[in-house]
Write a structure and sequence with these properties.
Oligomer: heterodimer
Radius of gyration of chain A: 14 Å
Order of helices and strands of chain A: EEEEEEEEEEE
Strand content of chain B: over 45%
Number of helices of chain B: 0
Number of helices of chain A: 0
Shape of chain A: globular
Structural class of chain B: mainly beta
Distance between the termini of chain B: 41 Å
Radius of gyration of chain B: 14 Å
Largest sheet of chain A: 7 strands, mixed
Order of helices and strands of chain B: EEEEEEEEEEEE
Distance between the termini of chain A: 35 Å
Largest sheet of chain B: 6 strands, mixed
Number of strands of chain A: 11
Helix content of chain B: under 10%
Number of strands of chain B: 12
């Protein structure tokens, strides 16, 4: 089935450790996105990529890093520089928005990171 | 700049009654508008979108939304609510014909009770 797979579903981390969240899509979408969700704050964009080997910072990129070496994959690393990393992380993909493409997002099931 | 406002943090409805979840937007041009639903500890699911044409858009699970350009609104509606509709609902906007990012509202929690 086509879709977006995020792993792991739940992750626990000690302070000072980096962790990497996986996101894979088989929808042949050009664009991929990482969002952070905190209670009462909606979705905040961390990073996005509209093409392989290129990505841009979103609204809250500090303390995070990404790579886009393959069209299907867009892993997110939460570094020790992120001061408050406990959150629900959502990966999404879309066709490249513009022209006739409405660019609606398709989301994975999310990864919940808890820092102990 | 583009923005979305969802003025209600929570909407409470009795099962069988009609429901409305409000959304207003601001964009300098013609918008694409979207509604998504999120169940606990799950990703967002696409419900419906407005592109152009008919102002009443029908989507999944019996939901529909009405685009009102003069009021810059895109309210989500359902004629008869179900307990299983209880979830978090997000409105989103994008400027048409551009590669602009999708901007989300802060979400409205819908609680449907028996």
């Amino acid at each position: 089935d086509g879709g977006i797979t995020q792993s792991p579903k739940y992750l626990f981390r000690k302070e000072g450790q980096n962790v990497t969240l996986s996101c894979e899509q088989n929808l042949n979408h050009d664009a991929m996105y990482w969002y952070r969700q905190d209670p009462g704050q909606g979705l905040r964009l961390i990073y996005y990529s509209q093409i392989v080997n290129d990505f841009q910072k979103g609204d809250i990129a500090e303390g995070y890093s990404v790579s886009r070496e393959k069209k299907e994959s867009f892993p997110l690393t939460v570094t020790s520089a992120q001061k408050n990393p406990t959150a629900f992380y959502l990966c999404a993909s879309s066709t490249f928005p513009g022209g006739q493409n409405t660019g609606e997002l398709f989301f994975g099931e999310g990864s919940r990171l808890t820092v102990l | 700049a583009q923005s979305v406002a969802q003025p209600e943090d929570q909407v409470n409805v009795a099962e069988g009654n009609p429901l409305t979840v409000k959304c207003t937007y601001s964009v300098s041009g013609n918008p694409y508008l979207f509604w998504y639903v999120q169940y606990p500890n799950r990703g967002l699911q696409f419900l419906l979108k407005y592109i152009t044409g008919d102002n009443l858009v029908k989507g999944s699970y019996g939901f529909e939304a009405e685009f009102n350009k003069s009021q810059t609104s895109f309210h989500l509606k359902k004629p008869s609510a179900l307990v299983s509709d209880s979830a978090l609902y997000f409105c989103a906007v994008r400027l048409t014909g551009t590669a602009s990012k999708l901007t989300f509202g802060t979400g409205t929690r819908l609680q449907v009770t028996l």
